Amino acid sequence: MRTTVSVIKADIGSLAGHVTVPKEVIEYAEARLREAVETGLINSFYVTHAGDDLELIMSHFKGVDSEEIHGLAWRVFKGATEEVSKRLKLYGAGQDLLKDAFSGNVRGMGPGVAELEFEERKSDPIAVFMADKTEPGAWNIYLYKIFADPFNTAGLVIDPRLHKGFIFRVLDVKSGEEFNFNTPEDTYDLLALIGTPSRYVIKNVYRRLDGEVAAAASTTRLSLIAGKYVGKDDPVMIVRAQSGFPAMGEILEAFTTPYLVAGWMRGSHVGPLMPVSLKYSKVARFDGPPRVVGLGFQVSEGKLIGPVDLFDDPSFDHVRRVASEMADYIRRHGPFMPHRLGPEEMEYTTLPQVMEKLKRKVEE
Ligand code: 13P
Ligand code: 13P
Ligand code: MG
Ligand code: MG
Question: Are 112 and 234 in contact (CB under 8 A)?
């Protein structure tokens, strides 16, 4: 039996602006997913949040892109919006639910999705990463480090199962085209695309040895669906670990540099991605800085065992300190690029309205 892990998320309303998800929403989602376990639709679940995004982590036997599983997530998001967020007047109630009627798959409807289906090994550790105040392309540099950089992942050099390299599947979010790159030999071509994370997003990684899937990331760009800024597409990803995949510690090693990502205040600013424990899975300064939480699970007989809060560790204290220093430095740029995003990305924000007014002023 092949097990599927689905992480489906949406911002459906938050507490005190875009800061966090209140416990009432979490409890609502837990109750609905508990019912889904009772009816046998899913095997197990864990509900959590990354900042103001509600995260449903589920295991089941229905495969990826299952209408039943996506329908369940959609009903949880809709129900939580109607029965909790609106009643409590939470901020941005139903923010990421861009369509009214469910049409078989939540992709393209606002929520973010990462799913992995696999035959369980003797032991199957996975890591689920969930970020707030950034976009799907933010994972590009981390996935590159984990699966293609031997200075990060020792196994690429010393483990024969990793030594053959990995296949990166990249999506052009504008055209919808997808490309495959084999590392190490296609490294420079891969970097030529994924160095533009606003447009080229790594969707999956596969092991070259046997084609086995190693990672899945969400690729939803809300502004491209809605045609305007409606909140950032705060992303999720699932990475498989150990026994022929990078070790859990190699996966976490990638997060020891707080790379600069797009998002933060009003989805319009570049800032450092800070790895935090669930306790700090909320935003503060300038609605940030952008944050990532990581949870480790064992997948066992179709069920999720865990989680362990992966960044809840003193070995990441200095990373958080560096991220805070970077935040200080880049914040001093105020409204100037490269802190504020470039004109192409700003098109989807409210800046064009200001520019329009300015144009009239110049003409007067
Ligand atoms: P595996 O090959 O069993 O994943 O072990 C690697 C390791 O020891 C990580 O430190
Ligand atoms: P979210 O995308 O997390 O809702 O944040 C929106 C925002 O404008 C933060 O300043
Ligand atoms: Mg929000
Ligand atoms: Mg968010």
Answer: yes
